[in-house]
Write a structure and sequence with these properties.
about 150 residues; alpha+beta; four-stranded antiparallel sheet; three-stranded antiparallel sheet; 7 helices; globular; DUF6912
């Protein structure tokens, strides 16, 4: 079991809560490859988890235009060679979700990051505008019970 950071759309979040289980197509975690790529030691796990959350948020931003991330304790295995800590997780029960993270409701901070196309997660990660977004606009923490407020509107 490990903490996995799962980028979501609002529809996926609603479906997960209503269905009780979700099999993410993409998830991220603190893997050996992520530790090596970013120079983290086991003593840096909190910082490594923060980085994995940012990566998941960026992945969501690129695919759906919004940073919305669920954090859950799940069985997962590292995707070989993924320096961004990509993991494969099976079906994750809603009860395993510890927290949700999202941009503020306006989403204004993320709009500028979407102005330029990015060929890949790696390309986006290296973009100075994305680096500025990640450094200056932290995702807001929400408890799992607050999910409805994240899908409204």
């Amino acid at each position: 079991m490990m903490l996995v950071f799962i980028p979501l759309t609002q529809a996926q979040l609603s479906s997960w809560v209503e269905g009780g289980s979700f099999a993410p197509k993409q998830a991220f975690g603190v893997t050996n490859s992520l530790r090596q790529a970013f120079g983290f030691t086991p003593a840096d796990d909190e910082e490594a988890e923060h980085t994995a959350m940012h990566i998941a948020g960026l992945s969501g931003l690129l695919s759906s235009g919004r940073r919305l991330v669920a954090v859950a304790e799940a069985s997962a295995r590292a995707v070989a060679g993924s320096e961004f800590g990509e993991v494969e997780a099976g079906a994750v029960p809603w009860s395993a979700v510890n927290a949700l993270f999202a941009d503020d409701a306006s989403g204004a901070a993320t709009a500028a990051a979407l102005d330029r196309p990015h060929a890949s997660l790696s390309d986006a990660w290296d973009d100075p505008a994305i680096a500025d977004l990640l450094a200056s606009h932290e995702l807001l923490w929400h408890g799992p019970s607050e999910w409805a407020g994240l899908v409204a509107g």
